[in-house]
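Subject: for your reference before the review

Hello V.,

The reviewers asked for a structural picture of the protein, and I figured it would be easier to keep everything in one thread rather than splitting it across files. Below is the amino acid sequence we used in the manuscript, unchanged from the supplementary table.
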Amino acid sequence: MAKRVRGNKYTEAWKQLVSAERLRPTRVISRSDLDARTPFENDFDRVVFSSSFRRLRNKAQVFSLEPHDFVRTRLTHSFEVSTIGRSLGEGAAAGFAPKCAGLESPRFLRDVGTIVATACLLHDIGNPPFGHSGEKAIGRWFAANMNDGKKLKFGNEQERDDLIKFEGNAQALRMATRLQWTGQDFGMNLTAATLSALIKYPCASYEVKPEGAKPLKKFGYFKADELAFQRVRSLTGVSDYRRNPLTYLMEAADDIAYATGDIEDVLKKGFVDYETIRESLAATKTSESRECVEKYLDGPYLSDFKKVDARERQQLAIQRFSQMAIRLMMKSSIAAFLDNFDSIMDGAFSEDLIGAMSMGDLCEALRTVMVQHVYSHVEIAYREQTAWSVISGLLSAIVDELQDRPDGPLARNTYREAPPHQAEQNNLSDNYRIALRATDYISGMTDGFALAQYQRISGMRPSF
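And here is what came back from the structure prediction:
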């Protein structure tokens, strides 16, 4: 049972947290009376119609360059996360808003749900090709190619750490506020509320503490994007290393979606058999999790689908279970948010909602399947090897081109520098700017395009 949320203590904070202000004043005038969208729904639409979001359809969720249509891509995963996030946002707001004067309106619930949903759409938009393998490959290449007699030398700690700890979350903020350029400043020009909810790690790269509190385990913005980061924080009233409370809901939506979705995918591909999944789920301890497994996995498997072909029977049972597990874990994570509402609002909550919710053991059991039987699989190792070869080859070629031929046609037309913000001061080193031009170009690639470009520039598949 969720604890009772305090009265008016956080009302003013929430009014600022759902700020509809944008980093650049909007130029939309004379909006039609028939356009009933809120500013946050406008954000959602801007993301859906952006080219950077579209490209997620050919970026890996778990399996890169995957020919199987059943298996999720970053695009389908992001839509699933967003659907869950909207429900989490509206559900959590329904729990605390009636106890905060001025927040009781249906419009507030709708706004909170939309903000979380849009942040969920954006959460992977900065991921480079090949997912987390691509992130690691970028960091590994820079660690091996800077300073110590190398061509890339950095005197600034943050610039250096931005690259060797390269982070898709920071690239997502960069994509939304700069790289998805419309010819005007600040990229998509989303509301401060949406961007604030997106920032999972409110710290710089040199401040990262992997063993510390959750908000400090990774970094959330590059040195080049500090202006946008600080404006978002100021407009929403979030300071120090505190997260926007809605970020916890976005993160929970992501955790729930990949825990359930990835299990469906790996069973379909034959990476893990049904008995192994069921054995892992037997480790759940709480009554809610055990009931979910017995009622919505064992029940359909033993009764509803008992006359179906064995392989399809297993797949159907896992799908039924996933549907119900999502519903129940959503309910559990909302309860965890309300139970920890005061500490979340005060910045004292240092874990994630999945770890605090009553059904956290179910989510952990599903993760265990992936860790023990999928991430260590030889096929994943081969795909990681491909990621390293492609990413390192691209970075070597692009950085060499930018350093050796800064005025050449590729530098002018292909590896272009990101548009500057009007109010920012350029205090970045030349090598850092070159590095960002390379990582910006690569991060925008799909898996297939990255492979094709690598083959092209390495001479394996020339285009002439």
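For the response letter, the relevant points are probably these. The first helix runs from residue 11 to 17. The chain has 21 helices and no strands.

Happy to draft the paragraph if you're swamped.

O.
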